[in-house]
Amino acid sequence: MFTPAGIGMHRKRLLAVAIFSLMAFCYEVVAASQLATERPPIAEPTPTPSVAPSDAPQKASYSSCRVDGPYIAMTFDDGPHPVLTPRLLDVLKARGIKATFFLIGQNAAEYPDIVRRIAAEGHEIGNHTWNHPQLTKLNPAALREEINRTSSTIAEIIGKPLLVMRPPYGATSAYINHWMNREFGMKVILWSVDPLDWKYRNSARVERQILAGAQPGAIILSHDIHATTVAAMPDVFDSLLSKGYKFVTVSELIAMDKPAPQVAQKEPSASPTPR
Ligand code: NI
């Protein structure tokens, strides 16, 4: 069957296949090693809002925003809670305040009616992973599963995609942030005010800490799974409203974000007080 010329052709084809397979293999090895090496160690527990001016306006993550008005974003993590989240929604509704809820996927799956109510009342919903792991400790496949499962479950309940996510414990990296942007179209949202409400279950303290930290462009962290936090909110909201603050969702706040000023420009020494 095979002529000498035919064998030669066959060998050439085999050689071509072998070279191609080797190239594909090398590419995968390089890609895998990049994935492994590009993930820096765990971020500081309390993230700092430092982003290079060259990153603006397409930032991958936000701890606060530079805005022209007295705008502020209240964010609530770890819900929905069957009793406390509806109670908080009543408090928000009575004041016409819009907030952002970073939901845990498995809680959202358990209480879809509350998830629907959050969305129906104009609040934003973000991804807070399926069961709250530290993302910097996961391998890429587990990380993808945490995000995918949560986004698809919630998107199915509310009928629209999620645009923001918050990493549990604020544990993230530049690599994870850009990966969230690139692969899932979500901005990573940290915070500038942390009342440590999960640690100190004291409404007066929660209120004091939030009022002390609030300033235009702030992203305030809280948890609607603690009764003391939800109990603090009527006074927190009324105080902030009386100071002239306007509440917006996280996506609305980051849409207003301005690039950081150049080094040559003079920055005002104090933050403007809202009025
Ligand atoms: Ni959390």
Kindly describe this structure.
With 275 residues, the chain is of the alpha/beta class. It contains nine helices and eight strands. α6 (174-184) links the parallel β5 and β6. The longest helix has 34 residues, at 4-37. The N and C termini lie far apart (91 Å). Residues 77-78, 128, 132, 168 line the site of nickel (II) ion (NI). The site of nickel (II) ion has 5 residues, from loops.
Give descriptors for this structure.
275 residues, alpha/beta, 2 domains, 5-stranded parallel beta sheet, globular, disordered N terminus
Report the structural category: alpha/beta
Tell me roughly what share of residues is in helical segments: 40-55%
Large-scale geometry: globular
Average pLDDT works out at: 84
Examine the coordinates and then state which fold CATH places here, giving the name of the CATH topology of the largest domain: TIM Barrel
| Main beta-sheet strand count, sense and barrel state | 5 strands, parallel
- Write the element-wise H/E pattern from the N-terminal end onward: HEEHEHHEHEHEHEHEH
CATH class of the largest domain: Alpha Beta
Give the second-level CATH assignment, the architecture of the largest domain.
Alpha-Beta Barrel
CATH evolutionary superfamily of the largest domain: Glycoside hydrolase/deacetylase
Tell me the strand percentage band.
Answer: 5-15%
